[in-house]
Amino acid sequence: MRNKKTIMETAKIASSFDRASELKAFDETKTGVKGLVDAGISKIPRIFHHSSVVELANPKPIPSELLHLKTIPTIDLGGRVFEDAVKRKKAIEGIKEAAAKWGFFQVINHGVSLHLLEEMKDGVRNFHEQPPEARKELYTRDYSKKFMYTSNFDLYRAPSANWRDSCYCYMAPYPPKPQDIPEICRDVMLEYSKQVMILGEFLFELLSEALGLNHNHLKDMDCLKGLRMLCHYYPPCPEPDLTFGTSQHSDSSFLTVLLQDQIGGLQVRREGYWFDVPHVPGALVINIGDLLQLITNDKFISLEHRVLANRATRARVSVACFFTTYVQVLPNPRSYGPIKELVSDENPPKYRETIVRDYATYVNAKGLDGTSALLHLKI
C-alpha cells in the first residue's frame, strides 16, 4: 500500500510539472543559475534534474586493468622553444599517444604567463558576480550579438538544464571591437585570446607532425582560423547529486584549450568509465574536437566529457577556447573530410564530408543530449 501511495504521489508531482512554463520563468529572470543561488534556494528546480545522475550515487568502479591509466597525461612544451630535436620529438610523441588514446592532455610550460591565467579566471568571476542589474542588461539568446551572456545555450532543447551560466564571444578571425565587451572583463579577454591563438598555432604544428604531415598542414586547412571563447561560471549547487555542471558531450571544434580553476569536476569518459581531470597548477587542458577526429579519420579521438555539479562553497570558473572556422559573419565554404594522406584501401574514409556551418547547425539543434554528433556523419 505504501509503495502504491508513493508511486501515486510521484505521478501527481510529475503531472503538475509544467516544464515549458518553468523554463520560460527561469529564462525571464535574466540572472541565470547565479540568480537562483543568490535567492537562497535549497532545492534546485525540476528543470535541472537529470535522469542520468543515478550513476553518480553508484558509479561503476574502474577495473584493475584500467587503474594504471589514472588520468590524462601532462606534456611539457618547453616554453614553446625546445632546446633540441630530441625534446621536441618527445613532446610530439606524447601528444600523438594522448590524442589517440585519450583525446585529452594537459600542457605545462606552454608560454602563456601564469599571471595572465589568474587574471583571466578573475575576469570571469568578476563578470558573473556583478550585481544582477548589470548582468540583466547583457542577458540574451540572440546569437548575432558580439558578446553573449546566457544560461544554457540549449535551454529549450536539452532534456535537462545544467547548473552553469556562460558568457561568450568570437575572438577570431574578426575580433570584436573593445566596446562590444563589458569593461569588467574586456582587457583580459582580448589579451588572453591573443595568447591562446599563438599557443594554438604551436599546438597545431605539433599535431600535424604527430600525424606524419607537414607542420603547417592543419593550419593550411584553416583549423585555427576561428576562435570562440566561452567563460563558464558554475555556482555552488545545493543538490549536486541531481544535476550536472555540464552534461556529457564531445566538443564540435577542431581543438579546445581549457583553463580551469582548482575546484575541479571535469571528467573524461574512456572505455565506459569516467576519469577525473585534476587541476594541475599553471596547466592548460587540451582536447581533440569532433572535427579533428573527422579529418584524421579516427587517428585522434574526441572523447565525451562532463562537469559534475559544484559541491564547493565557492563558484567554479573555466574558460574554454574553441578552434574552429568562423560560422557567423562569413561562413567557411570549405568541405572537411578525412585527410587524403591519412586514408588508404586498408583504412578507408569513415566519415562523409561536411562544411563547418552545417555541422555547427546540427550540433546546436541537437544540444547536449549525451550522444556524439559525429554519428550523424558516419559512413
Automatic annotation (TrEMBL):
Residues 225-326 form the Fe2OG dioxygenase domain. Pfam families: 2OG-FeII_Oxy, DIOX_N. InterPro entries: DIOX_N, IPNS-like_FE2OG_OXY, IPNS-like_sf, Oxoglu/Fe-dep_dioxygenase_dom. Keywords: Iron, Metal-binding, Oxidoreductase. The keyword Metal-binding applies. It comes from the Eukaryota. Belongs to the iron/ascorbate-dependent oxidoreductase family. This is LOW QUALITY PROTEIN: 1-aminocyclopropane-1-carboxylate oxidase homolog 2-like.
